Every structure is written in structure tokens, then in C-alpha cells.
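User: Please predict the structure of the protein below. I'd like the answer in C-alpha cell form so I can feed it into my own downstream comparison script.

Assistant: Understood. Taking the following sequence of 414 residues as input:
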Amino acid sequence: MAAKRGVPDVLVVGGGLAGLACARDLAAGGFDVRVLEASDGVGGRMRTDAHDGFLIDRGFQVFNTSYPQVRRRIPLRDLRLRPFTAGILVHTPDGPMRFGDPTRRPRRLGDLRPGRLAGTRDLLALAALSGRDMLAPVGTLKRGEDRTTRTALAAAGFSEEFVDRFFRPFLSGVFLEDRLETSGKVFHLVWRSMLRGTLCLPGTGIGAVPRLLADGLPPDSLRLDTPVAGLTDTGVELDSGAELAARAVVVATGPGPAGRLLPGLDIPAYRVVTTYYHAASRSPLGEGTLVTDSRRRFLNTCVLSEVVPGYAPPGMSLVATSVLGPDREGREGLLRDALGEAYGTDTTAWELLTLRTIPDALPAMPPPQPLTRPARLSAGRYVCGDHRTTGSVQGALASGARAAREVARDLTGS
């Protein structure tokens, strides 16, 4: 197992969730590991910026407590998690309609009575789908023929009207596409995770999650502001021209750098999302509830300071609203009008603090969708990241764990 004197066993290129998970597992196995991160902090897309007293996540984010990799790796108490309100509000031409989870908030059972958002047929289909996805062994959800989410929902007995009013607006914000063309297997796994877990935000922003993972690395194993220019026969070459050697290299970057460092790597198309952050002098909704739009003028919107008060300075509120694609001229004005309708308030005085366009927010996952891919590409070369799995926090962490197992097996010959 020992490396040459002064040469680490493994270089992990990228300090996102996958790279941090891989590095921690290898270090726990006794390997000498270095993590090389190009930016000034860990987390990749999962970071939080301070902006004039507000906390701005890099795109709208949620943290699901049900993921097995999360529960295995992260002491949740240290994150000081605050939950979103269970359920969503759907803005429709007939006004807002609440879709709650009566298993968490029994007093909201009346919101699900037939004739409001859903009819009897759709409520029965929803109960059957949710019961199966929540209680069945996870292997059952992974087996069988894969098909689009839209086809899967039709097969489950949902009406087109309910799909278009509830599932399509809601899942557009989950999968960042509005045609329900994502793999049905991925949908069932995501639906299961939502039913079994709680959607939260850390008290200091989503960036607390990768920082907590990084804190578990051995001292001096993380190097920030260290971009890698390319791979060499013996390790990597940095942008500075310096070369670092190692017995194995794991590329754990986003899709763009991964494709550059590993020419020929099969990388899926990615979804683009833009999140607008508005400051309001008063909260337009006195609860931390996700709001969707049946007309799909936006993916979702939420008063983040109602979820975590620390996201905004005292006396102010922070509203985050996401849309598909990049920003364009005039889009924020149209969005502001839609938000005025959705929240039933005048938005003209809201201040646009900033926006975040994420070009590689989530991999496209049409069927048939492989739920995992091997990490080993060739002798001493490995890859991990959400582009190798289902695009979730669970997927990124699991991809890093798989890479660590494959590296360890090769380096030890076992």
C-alpha cells in the first residue's frame, strides 16, 4: 500500500461532494490522499455566498435527510437544519391550492379532499404510488423496464389534468425539465426519498454540508486554489506548470473540467437553471413553503428567510425563484409580475439582489437511465461525480464511495 517517499497514493481532482466522499473513504482506509480544488472553497455547486447581509446559495437548494449516504457520513445535528413546510402551494388560475402531507401534518388532511387539487381517482392513485414507493424494498424500484416519468404516472392511474396541475410544475423544479421525460426509475427513487425524509436547509446555508465533509479530511490533505491543467503519465500537471505524482488519480470535477481532463468521457447533457434572489421589506408568505405555478412561468419560489431566518438580515426577507434556462433581457420583469400574482402582493419595490445561472445544474436522465457507472477508466485513472449517477446529493456521495472502493481494490490488489 505504501507510496514512494513523498508521493501520495491518490490525487483527487475536485472538492465537491463526490471528491470529498472519495477522499475521506480512502483516508479512512489508510491511503495518503490529496484533494486538489481549483476554487477558493469546497462544495462545487453546493456553496453559499454572503451578499450584503444575505446568504445566497448558488442556485436553489434543498437538503434531504433520508439519503443513506447523508445519514452515514454527516452528523445532521451539526448542520442546525431547519425544515421547509411539508407540502407545496400550487398557484393556479383559480387561486392557490395547498398540497400537504397529512402523515406529517394531520390537520392539513382537508386540503386533500376530492374536488380541490385532485379528484378521487387521483387521490387513490397517489396513495397507492406513495405507499409502494415508500415501503417497497429499494431494489424493487430499480428493477423492470425503464420509461419516462410521464408514462410512469399515466400507468399509475393519474389523470392528465392532475399531472399537468401538480406533478408537472413540481417535478419541473426537481428534474429541471418540464416535459416529464426523466427516467421513471429515477422519479420513483426521488419520490421515495421525499416521502421518507425531510427537506431542510442548514442554518448557515447549503455550503455547510461540504464544509462539514471537508473537516473530516486529514490535516493538510486539501489544497484550494489549485487548478489542474491536465493528467500526466505519473499524476497531474497544475495550471502553474508544476507536476504532482501519485499512484492513482480520481477526477471528481464537474462535467466541463471532467471532459477536458478525460477526453472521450461519456458525459450526459446538463440542465440549465437560473435562480433570482429578491429582497423584500416584508415577507410575502409567512411560512417556508415551496410555491409552484400551474402556468409554469417559474419552476418554484420560496421565502428562504421563513425557512432559515439567518438567510436575511433583521427586518428583511429573501425570496428565491428559479426558472429553466439562462437569464435574458426582460425576463426578471416578467418574473416579478408572476410572483406578484403568486404571492398576492405588490413586488415593484422588491430589490433584485443577484441571480445565479447554473449551466451544469443537473444531468439529463432520460430512460433507460443507468443508476451508477464504474469509476475505473484505465490503470490509475478514475472518475466520479453526479454525471455518473442520478444527479442527487445521494448520487454524488455514492459515486465518490464507489470510486474509493475501486481505487482501494486496485492499489491493494484485493
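That's the full C-alpha cell string. The mean pLDDT is 94.
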